[in-house]
Every structure is written in structure tokens, then in C-alpha cells.
Write a structure and sequence with these properties.
alpha/beta, Rossmann fold, Dehydroquinate synthase-like, alpha domain, 2 domains, six-stranded parallel beta sheet, two-stranded antiparallel sheet, 8 strands, 52% helix, binds nicotinamide-adenine-dinucleotide
Length: 353
């Protein structure tokens, strides 16, 4: 076996159906006397349920979380946090709400209890992206890693059909890149392969039975494993392209991951023999990149960047931007190959690999 470095991150995870019942005890365990509950506007009702559950240990509800963690929203939430004497946060929602909890933790040291309702995976990472004046900056600091994560499968039953697929493929993309990133190691590869297999087989089952607790359990378990890969592992070309595309053209996060993944994988395939073997096992397909494309298409998710608002003349700009500050990647980045990749992703072509 080759030498490796494994970087484990601390987190307490409570997983299952109905695990929200553990919330008051988990809040107490962290020594939180008055928690500020965070949600997006559409998930405010879920936040109110948590407020009821928390009883005396609640400071208030802030239901204004928004995509890309804008600092104005963080400032408004911080005002409420301070004026109510809160000493911890409880975030229920997807990556946007979890991002707000992290932003408060960054500024105050607040302990966090997170209840994820999508598969994006932010709850397992020490990464925070914030937006100010239209500019997104990302930093990595242990100050934002949530202390406790309660995965309650029942919270994912309401995830809309298309978002289930795009969020699931967003998670799969974390695990795919962990297989061949610079930080790849055999332990993360185990988690990545299992996470991809669980999600890949659960998503079609969810499409035919959206409220199946068994299928949703498998998907959420898979998403957790994929999130661990993002938190402890590394990323490569796929994530670089998604960051460039999201930042330059304001494209939606999970959809962009869904569209780019098959093409980034096809680009790297010639240089990643062992990861491809794992991906064939995880998907049960000889052509994993095509299998991810087919999964997206069958689930009604977009498969072309042109369909989510990317202009065709943006391709050259995106290539130049990716080449200017490249991430590690197993296959060297070169303009012609990247242009071909993005043209295929823009048009929505099915890769054959
Ligand atoms: P999101 O959190 O923006 O959610 C999209 C919408 O779906 C929101 O309105 C949300 O309230 C709603 N929603 C979420 N779960 C639901 C459910 N179960 N039922 C009904 N509605 C539900 O989207 P996301 O894809 O979860 O997160 C994307 C954001 O997270 C991006 O800003 C991304 O940059 C960030 N992110 C950060 C990290 C990190 O490590 N820092 C990792 C992954 C994603």
C-alpha cells in the first residue's frame, strides 16, 4: 500500500428517522442555554417546530437565510443573536441555512447543532463561502465546523423531486473527486464508493416513491458519506469549474454540479484507472460518467449549461479563468480539452465514458 495522510474531523452525528427528538438533549449537551433557530423563508414552519421543541432553551427564530451567505443577512441574524442573548445556533435546512449558522459561529464562536434537509453536505466541512458586494470569498477554518449534526430522514421527505436529484448528484460529485484529489487516501475512498453506491441506487427509488423512508435513509446516509469526503478530502477540476461557473454566471449550485460532473469525469477518466474501477462498482455501469448523466436526465434535472442560463460566449472566459488559478487535477489542464468539456456540458451532450 502507498503511504497516505488521513485527516479526520470531529463531529457528533445522530442519524435515523425521528432523530429530531434528540434536539433538546443535544443542545443541552453543548451547554447552549438559548439557541437561535435558523431557516430560509420557505422552511420557517420547520423552524417554528424546533422552537416549540426547545422550550426554554430558545432565543428566537431567524428565517431569512439566503443563497451564498450574503453578509447583510448575516448582520441581521447577528443583531437578533446578540439582542436576544443567544449562545448557540440550531440550523435546519440546506447549504444556505447551514452557511448562515457557520457565519455566526465564525464571528461569535457559537456552538452549532445542524439538521440538514438536503444532500449538499456543508454540515461536515470546515469551509464557509460568503458574499459581499457580489463577490464570493471562501475560507477554511475549524471555527465553522458544526459540533453536532442530527440527520433526521423525515426532514428530507419534502425535498422536491428535481432538487432530490440535483442535490444527490452534488453530493456524489464530492465523493467522485475525493477518489482522485491530491488528498485521496484508502479510507476516504471506501466512504466515497459506498456513498456514491447508496445515493446512486436510492435516487431512482425515491423518484418512484418520494416518501419512502427506506430509500430516503439510504440517500441521506450516502450523502453523509459524500459530505465526509468533502470535509476531509480534496477537490479537483470538477469543483474548480463549478466555482468558476457559479461565480462568473451566477448559475444555481446543485444544478451546475449535476451538469458538469459527467463531463469533468470524462475528461479525467484516462488518468484515473483505480477510481474508475470503484465508480463502475458503485454505479453497476461500465460507463459511470454516462450513468450520472442518465440519472440526471431520468430524474428531470437539467443536463445542459445553456438551460440554466450560461451564455455560449462565456465558455472561453470560463476556460481562461479555470486555467488562471488551477486546482490540483490528475489530468493536466489544457485549453483545448477544457473548451471541449465545457462545449459538451453547455450543449448537454451525453458522454460515452
Ligand atoms: P439551499 O440550502 O439554497 O436550498 C434551496 C432551497 O430548498 C431553499 O429554499 C431551501 O429552504 C429548500 N429546501 C432545502 N431542503 C428542503 C426540504 N427538505 N424540503 C423543502 N425545501 C427544502 O440549497 P443547497 O443545495 O442545499 O445548498 C447550496 C448552498 O450551500 C450553496 O450556497 C453552496 O455554496 C453551499 N454549500 C456549501 C458547502 C460548504 O462546505 N461550505 C458545501 C456544499 C454546499
Amino acid at each position: 500500500m502507498e503511504a497516505f495522510i488521513y485527516n479526520g474531523l470531529p463531529a457528533r452525528v445522530i442519524f435515523g428517522a425521528g432523530t429530531v427528538a434528540a434536539l433538546p438533549a443535544e443542545v443541552e449537551r453543548l451547554g447552549i442555554g438559548r439557541a437561535l433557530v435558523l431557516t430560509t423563508p420557505p422552511q420557517a414552519d420547520q423552524g417554528r417546530h424546533l422552537v416549540e421543541r426547545l422550550g426554554k432553551r430558545v432565543a428566537g427564530l431567524f428565517s431569512g437565510a439566503a443563497m451564498h451567505t450574503p453578509v447583510e443577512v448575516t448582520d441581521a441574524a447577528l443583531n437578533l443573536y446578540r439582542s436576544t442573548g443567544a449562545d448557540g445556533v440550531v440550523a435546519i435546512g440546506g447549504g444556505s441555512t447551514i452557511g448562515l449558522g457557520k457565519a455566526i459561529a465564525l464571528r461569535t464562536g457559537a456552538p452549532q447543532v445542524v439538521l440538514p434537509t438536503s444532500y449538499a453536505g456543508s454540515e461536515m466541512t470546515p469551509i464557509i463561502g460568503q458574499t459581499e458586494g457580489g463577490q464570493k470569498t471562501t475560507q477554511k477554518t475549524m471555527k465553522v465546523l458544526p459540533e453536532t449534526v442530527i440527520y433526521d430522514v423525515e426532514h428530507t421527505l419534502t425535498l422536491p423531486a428535481t432538487m432530490t436529484v440535483t442535490s444527490g448528484l452534488n453530493a456524489i460529485a464530492h465523493a467522485v473527486e475525493a477518489l482522485y484529489a491530491e488528498e485521496a487516501n484508502p479510507v476516504l475512498s471506501l466512504m466515497a464508493e459506498e456513498g456514491i453506491a447508496k445515493l446512486f441506487t436510492a435516487l431512482p427509488r425515491i423518484a418512484s416513491a418520494p416518501h419512502s423512508v427506506a430509500a430516503r435513509s439510504d440517500a441521506l446516509y450516502g450523502a453523509w458519506l459524500c459530505a465526509l469526503c468533502l470535509g476531509s478530502g480534496g477537490v479537483a477540476l470538477h469543483h474548480k469549474l463549478c466555482h468558476v461557473l457559479g461565480g462568473s454566471f451566477d448559475l444555481p449550485h446543485a444544478e451546475t454540479h449535476t451538469i458538469v460532473l459527467p463531463h469533468a469525469l470524462a475528461y479525467n477518466a484516462p488518468e484515473i484507472a483505480e477510481p474508475m474501477t470503484r465508480l463502475r462498482r458503485a454505479t453497476g455501469s461500465e460507463t459511470p460518467a454516462a450513468a450520472f448523466y442518465d440519472l440526471a436526465r431520468a430524474g428531470g434535472a437539467p443536463v445542459a449549461l445553456r438551460d440554466i442560463g450560461m451564455p455560449e460566449d462565456g465558455i472561453d472566459r470560463a476556460v481562461a479563468s479555470a486555467l488562471r488559478a488551477p486546482y490540483f487535477n490528475p489530468r493536466p489542464l489544457e485549453a483545448e480539452g477544457l473548451t471541449g468539456l465545457l462545449k459538451a456540458a453547455w450543449a448537454g451532450n451525453r458522454p460515452e465514458i
